[in-house]
Amino acid sequence: MRRLLLAVPTVLVLAFPAPALASESVHVKLLELNKSGASGTATLTALDNGDLKISIRSRGLVPGSPHAQHLHGSADGMDFHCPAMSADTDGDGYVSTEEGVPDYGDIFVSLTTKGDVSRASGLAVDRMPSADSKGVLSYDRTIAGADLPAGTVAHLKDLHIVQHGIDANGNDAYDMKALGESTLAKAAGLNGIPQEATNPALCGMVSGAAAGSIPVGGVATGDGSTLNRGVAGWAGYAGLALLVALGAVLVSRRRAFVLPRAER
Length: 264
What we know:
- The chain contains 7 helices and 8 strands; from the N terminus they run αββββαβββαααβαα.
- The chain has helices at 2-15, 97-104, 176-179, 183-187, 195-198, 231-245, 247-252; strands spanning 24-32, 39-46, 52-59, 69-73, 107-110, 137-143, 159-164, 200-206.
- An 8-stranded antiparallel beta sheet has the order 5-4-7-8-1-2-3-6.
- β2 (39-46) and β3 (52-59) form a beta hairpin.
- The radius of gyration is 21 Å and the shape is globular.
- The termini are far apart.
- Mean pLDDT is 76; it is low at 1-21 and 209-264.
């Protein structure tokens, strides 16, 4: 009898194994920036094995064109949000990437279609998704936990999604006629990249996440002042040296930004 009683706990453990960790999803509504006319939704799912599944559906983007996209923000408790038009400090009517960074934070994860997802791939347009002929972009990828920055899954609600690439003059293409040359690319010594290609088109916060204020202390170790906005500030936030290193990729893919046949 005693042996039977001792065996009971073992039987119960075998019959009722410890439950597996459940996957957790957060949802993001992507809202237009820079009068892009675009919209979208995204779902970020933290899988029980530590991987991150991303699904994005956007519409109204520049057709047939690549759109750089990233998770922005921080896993260090800093408070970021999507920028308002007041971030347009140079008064040209558009929020550039440099002007938006103090609000939505530096690149945390590059949402490429394959390969590296670090900040180093932030402008790897050859591995960024493209919108179809109707301006619809569909993106699905599961990124291994080992390839994610520390704290990504634990701080999903603190991150934002930004998609870049607008069509300011309505000709269904990126070109120099609308907004001129990209100040971001030019600061890195790259010529011939339209400003339309690098300006943000959509930004989304996780549903239920409170919109906060610009973090004290800036994106990383800056002083949080408005002096950090602009081209000089971008060098501090994302690393100008990093952009220069990516120059070969951008230059080799420059034709992808200029779509009208007359422009080729």
